[in-house]
Specification:
The complex is a heterotrimer of chains A (about 280), B (about 300) and C (about 400).
Chain A: H1 2-37, H2 40-44, H3 55-64, H4 66-100, H5 102-115, H6 120-130, H7 138-167, H8 171-179, H9 184-221, H10 228-237, H11 241-273
Helix pairs in contact in A: 3-11, 4-5, 4-7, 4-9, 5-7, 6-7, 6-9, 7-9, 9-10, 9-11, 10-11
Chain B: H1 9-34, H2 38-41, H3 45-53, E1 57-59, E2 62-63, H4 64-99, H5 101-116, H6 119-130, H7 133-158, H8 162-170, H9 175-186, H10 188-210, H11 218-226, H12 232-260, H13 262-271, H14 280-286
Antiparallel strand pairs in B: 1-2
Helix pairs in contact in B: 3-12, 4-5, 4-7, 4-10, 4-11, 4-12, 6-7, 7-10, 10-12, 11-12
Chain C: H1 2-51, H2 69-81, E1 85-87, H3 94-102, E2 110-111, H4 117-120, E3 126-130, H5 134-139, E4 153-156, E5 168-172, H6 173-178, H7 180-199, H8 201-210, H9 217-232, H10 248-261, H11 267-275, H12 278-281, H13 285-292, E6 304-308, H14 318-325, H15 328-331, E7 335-339, H16 347-352, E8 358-359, H17 363-371, E9 376-381, E10 388-392
Parallel strand pairs in C: 1-2, 1-3, 6-7, 6-8
Antiparallel strand pairs in C: 3-10, 4-10, 5-8, 5-9
Classes of the chains: A mainly alpha (about 280), B mainly alpha (about 300), C alpha/beta (about 400).
């Protein structure tokens, strides 16, 4: 009886906790926006509402140009997501190779990891040049170049994490597989693959925001003038901070949106795999 | 078990590096045969090495290598200061978040959000706050590197086994003692994981913020040589230099970790022959430290 | 709520349209004025070429700058149809937009990076190039160059009547108000440096190179000679007597084109842009005072000042480096720090927030910045004609 009650109160406590997790940041957000709109934030930072325009101004510019903003968001998001997809597949493939052929694989992963340390600013222009022959249409080849940059970054994250998932197996499970005299194929399908799933999400947690940032930065250098990143740069160079803020907000929005989606997918899959 | 020569990691790494070099050179030959200005696209590695040792003056009175090293000084210094600042702030934030669940709930989402704001949008605001471009650069580097430290340390503090607390409770230890005797020591490996992630990011960030204004620094030289204002090989030298420094930074943090963690040295020594992969930490070492669970955001 | 928004939007549109109409009237009237002046100056130019046919470099005939208009139209149309017209964007594109509009073409362009690789491999067949920078790389075969020599042809923005003024000196209105003597002294010494540089570009190039330039010595020299031409020749090809003069006609043409082709998403800024007049963006009083000064009686309010260049350290900005090297700034009691540009924080932002005191920018960027809410003002105009050209290989357009 008491046990049931305590469980009940515990779940109530959990619910309250979960509610707090949402309410607190939202409250802080509302406070920040209020201070921002009221000009207090600007005073606090010693800046003016020129560099840091009020939220209402940003929103009204967004309203005035919503179709253009959406078009740019679409470009950036599709670059980031396609790059993420290809990069993650490549990284996972490298990890599988590493797990099946441990000797060669370890080196491969070290090399892939090294790519994560190469500054983006250096990669993006090189990719532009390498993809010059892809298409006569600047929009297409520029799209490909941007995707390739995102791909490299995403591949590094996925490769390193998935390799851990494929190799760091629970000892009892390995022993169990041994007692069944399971073939390495079975071990791979029944043990390694499911074991790597949480690690895939660990990688994605890093690489989803990273892909978006990468997409934005490679847009600075890209040949075709589209995308959120390009708009931010162009507007800041032209000293149009209010408009730049619309796109900065858009960049944050894409990041938060994709992260939330990732978390939802993760929680759904988590239930399936008992993560 | 059959012994392969790939058993040793460095052999395997070498194998892949050689493979990459071969692929690069094949590419370079193709580019050299089809393009008018191959140096802009994919030059031969030998040319890049030659450029590093060339005594030809490419900017003012400096050779290509001198350009790289002099500008690297400024950039790496800013990266170091920003990194240390970021690590300290990250650690303090993690402590605060551990101390109070409310603080964690309140600020954690915003820590993530800050990471998502493009630097180039952040820069003018920070510039108008500080009024000095170099201070702004350091602050931006710090902003970009504090996150991995904060999340890792927080995670480390949360991962402390309940038994350790119970022990302290039986001693009726005050809160500060729990922190100093339990939480801080046991979060140390996590701190270093965070630092290993943060170090290359601080360097990348420092290079990026160089380009905010055109005075000195690797980022400036990189963009200048890309804009053909300078010998294009300066660009290639900087790309390689950055990659090497980025990788090296992870190892340096690893050495520091070894130096300040005597137990780890013992563990490593005992685990080396015959008993591979016994503990998780050794594994982390093996994977080059790029494998922490928490969010490492490649920031720009 | 929604209705009110709609109303507000429609009102805003009405205002914009009205403003646009007015602007169009203004520009058409001014363009007819320029036609008159061009006719007058053409005659003058003909005279001056007759006089100096002995071969002085600075006042050479128009043919040096670009191809004839009919040829330009043919090439432009072909390149535009193929989608192979290039520009860097980021505020460098307005002259190109004006040119495309002039020939009734859609105003799309491909983004050039800061190399001429895309021109070299024909993915951009009609590429934007500055006479003093990219053209040097295209033509010459020194370090970083492509070595096309005179086999390439150019379309010149000044010839096409869509030239916009570029490098100038700006400061914030607040700084100018508080430090009038500093501004005059800075102008006096800078313009003295520029005059020297124009008289001896080769010597100036050497000074820039030694000041830690990022560009090879050969390119520096080429750039210095081209920049000297832009500084000493106006849009009609006539020689300009005084470096730094703010020519009314050229500035008006620039502002009119800026109003027409700068498209700001921010409705408030767009409206402000349309309402700008020359008096809002330039102040001739400091220039006039500096011209009258003897160079010894300045009492600068602030002695440590800085100027942010628009781009990397190179001969494009040789005047300031010459003034520095020859001690002209010291003579007027100033200690000047020259900060190179080319970064993400634009020179307009840096001047406006007070991180630097003076800046070099383009008139169009200045107009956009003031429309966006900055309070900047031009105090001298260094380049007297547009340095933008479109370069092409004739064999691609046969």
């Amino acid at each position: 009886m008491t046990a049931v009650r305590s469980r009940k109160s515990k779940s109530a406590k959990n619910a309250a906790n979960a509610a707090l997790t949402i309410i607190l940041p939202v409250a802080l957000g509302v406070l920040i926006v209020a201070l921002w709109q009221g000009g207090v934030l600007q005073k606090l930072f010693g800046t003016d509402d020129y560099v840091l325009p009020e939220p209402t101004r940003i929103f009204s510019i967004f309203q005035d140009n919503s179709s253009a903003v959406w078009a740019n968001i679409k470009i950036t998001t599709s670059v980031a997501m396609l790059g993420l997809l290809f990069g993650s597949l490549l990284g996972y493939a490298a990890a599988v190779l590493g797990a099946l052929k441990p000797g060669i694989g370890a080196g491969a992963l070290a090399v892939v990891g090294a790519f994560a340390s190469v500054p983006l600013v250096a990669l993006a222009p090189v990719m532009n040049n390498l993809t010059r022959d892809v298409s006569r249409v600047a929009e297409t080849r520029s799209f490909v170049a941007k995707i390739l940059v995102v791909m490299l970054i995403a591949a590094a994250d996925m490769g390193l994490n998935a390799y851990r998932g494929l190799t760091e197996l629970p000892p009892y499970a390995v022993d169990l597989m041994k007692t069944y005299a399971a073939s390495s194929k079975t071990v791979f399908l029944k043990l390694r693959l499911p074991n790597s799933v949480p690690y895939i999400f660990t990688a994605l947690k890093v690489s989803v925001p990273a892909s978006i940032m990468t997409a934005i930065v490679s847009e600075y250098f890209a040949e075709f003038n589209g995308g959120v990143g390009r708009q931010i740069r162009e507007n800041i160079l032209l000293a149009q901070y209010s408009t730049a803020w619309v796109y900065i907000m858009a960049a944050c929005g894409i990041g938060v949106g994709t992260y939330v989606i990732l978390m939802i997918v993760r929680s759904i899959i988590a239930r399936k795999f008992h993560m | 078990m059959k012994k392969s020569i790939f058993e040793k990691k460095w052999v395997s790494v070498l194998f892949w590096i050689v493979l990459l070099i071969i692929a690069w050179e094949i590419g370079a030959f193709i580019v050299a045969a089809t393009k008018r200005t191959p140096a802009n696209i994919l030059p031969h590695l030998t040319n890049i090495i030659a450029a590093a040792f060339s005594t030809k003056q490419v900017a003012g009175k400096l050779t290509a290598s001198e350009v790289v090293f002099t500008s690297a000084g400024a950039t790496l210094f800013r990266a170091l200061v920003g990194f240390v600042l970021g690590a300290v702030v990250g650690y303090v934030l993690a402590l605060l978040m551990k101390l109070s669940g409310i603080v964690e709930k309140l600020i954690f989402p915003y820590l993530m959000l800050i990471q998502l704001i493009p630097v180039i949008g952040l820069a003018p605001i920070i510039l108008s706050i500080t009024g000095d471009i170099n201070i702004s650069r350091v602050i931006i580097s710090a902003i970009l590197s504090f996150f991995p430290v904060a999340t890792n340390v927080l995670e480390g503090m949360k991962a402390v086994p309940k038994d350790n607390y119970d022990l302290m409770y039986t001693y009726a230890a005050p809160k500060w003692m729990i922190f100093s005797k339990v939480l801080i020591p046991s979060s140390k490996p996590y701190l270093f994981t965070g630092l290993k992630t943060g170090a290359p990011m601080a360097i990348t960030a420092s290079i990026l913020v160089d380009t905010l204004q055109g005075d000195g620094g690797l980022g400036c030289m990189l963009s200048q040589s890309l804009k053909h204002a300078m010998n294009i090989y300066v660009f290639w030298l900087i790309v390689f230099f950055c990659a090497i420094i980025g990788i090296l930074s992870t190892y340096v943090i690893g050495w520091i970790e070894l130096a300040v963690t005597p137990s780890l040295r013992v563990e490593r020594r005992t685990s080396r022959p015959g008993r591979p992969k016994k503990n998780k930490k050794a594994l982390i070492e093996k994977n080059g430290g790029m494998n922490n669970d928490s969010s490492q955001i490649q920031k720009v | 709520m929604k209705k009110r928004n709609l109303k507000a939007v429609s009102m805003m549109m009405a205002v914009c349209m009205a403003a646009g109409g007015l602007a169009a009237c203004g520009s058409s009237s001014s363009s007819s004025k320029t036609e008159e002046t061009t006719a007058a100056t053409e005659a003058a130019a003909a005279e001056s070429t007759a006089e100096t046919s002995a071969g002085s470099d600075a006042s050479s005939s128009d043919s040096e700058w670009g191809v004839p208009t009919e040829e330009a139209e043919r090439v432009l149309k072909a390149a535009a149809a193929a989608g192979q017209v290039g520009n860097w964007g980021n505020g460098n594109q307005y002259e190109l937009l004006a040119l495309l509009t002039k020939y009734g073409l859609p105003t799309d362009y491909v983004t050039e990076d800061f190399t001429m690789d895309a021109f070299d491999d024909d993915s951009i067949t009609l590429a934007s190039a500055m006479t003093y920078n990219e053209m040097g790389l295209v033509k010459n075969d020194y370090d970083g160059g492509y070595g096309y020599g005179d086999s390439v042809k150019t379309i010149d923005m000044n010839d096409e009547g869509v030239g916009m003024l570029e490098d100038n000196i700006i400061t914030s209105k607040k700084f100018a108000e508080e430090n009038p003597q500093t501004v005059q002294a800075f102008l006096y010494a800078s313009l003295k440096g520029w005059a020297d540089a124009v008289a001896d570009p080769e010597g100036a190039a050497q000074i820039v190179y030694e000041a830690g330039s990022s560009v090879s010595q050969d390119h520096q020299k080429y750039m210095a000679s081209e920049v000297a031409k832009l500084t000493a020749t106006d849009m009609n090809g006539d020689t300009v007597d005084q470096v730094g003069t703010m020519d009314e006609t050229a500035m008006q043409q620039t502002l009119d084109l800026a109003k027409k082709y700068i498209a700001l998403d921010d409705a408030t800024a767009q409206k402000k842009l349309q309402s700008l007049t020359l008096d809002d963006i330039r102040d001739t009083s400091f220039f006039d005072a500096a011209m009258k000064a003897d160079g010894k009686s300045f009492k600068p309010e602030k002695t440590d000042v800085s100027i942010q260049l628009k781009w990397l350290p190179q001969s494009q900005f040789m005047g300031y480096y010459v003034a520095q090297a020859k001690g002209y700034y010291k003579e007027v009691g100033l200690n000047v720090n020259i900060i190179s540009g080319g970064g993400d924080v634009a020179e307009t932002t840096a001047v406006n927030n007070g991180t630097v005191d003076f800046g070099v920018t383009w008139v169009s960027n200045l107009a956009a910045a003031d429309a966006g809410g900055m309070d900047l003002v031009e105090i001298a105009q260094i380049f007297q004609r547009s340095g933008l050209e479109l370069v092409y290989k004739p064999e691609n357009f046969q």
